Write the structure tokens for this entry.
Amino acid sequence: MHAQRRAQRVRFEEATPVVLRYPDGRRFSGQLEVISITGGLLCIRQPLQQGSLVKLMFLAKTGSVLGSAEMLSPVAWGQQPFRFVALHEDDQSRLHAAIQFSLEHTRRQDELRGREREQMEKFRAW
């Protein structure tokens, strides 16, 4: 038996605006706080109805990502999770690449901070 692994979640370094569109044309905007290949967490002015199906679009470092999403139960007044219900292969590839880019950037930053700490410790002993 294979244990199911939770999809990797990231916070993009830069602010990422999101546009949500209902089938009837109404639009809402927000900010992407956390993203994974399966869904994410949005910062929005007021929660959308749980179960609502929307088109969700944002621009990542690797290009635009457009998918269909289901809005989940809000976790706070200004924070609402969603799950992707449809994501074309090209959009999925761009999203996966953006997540990997962000993970690699975070890893490099952590390594740099570690080296800086080592340097500080050397100077402190001096």
In short: The beta strands are 16-21, 27-35, 39-44, 53-60, 63-71, 79-87.
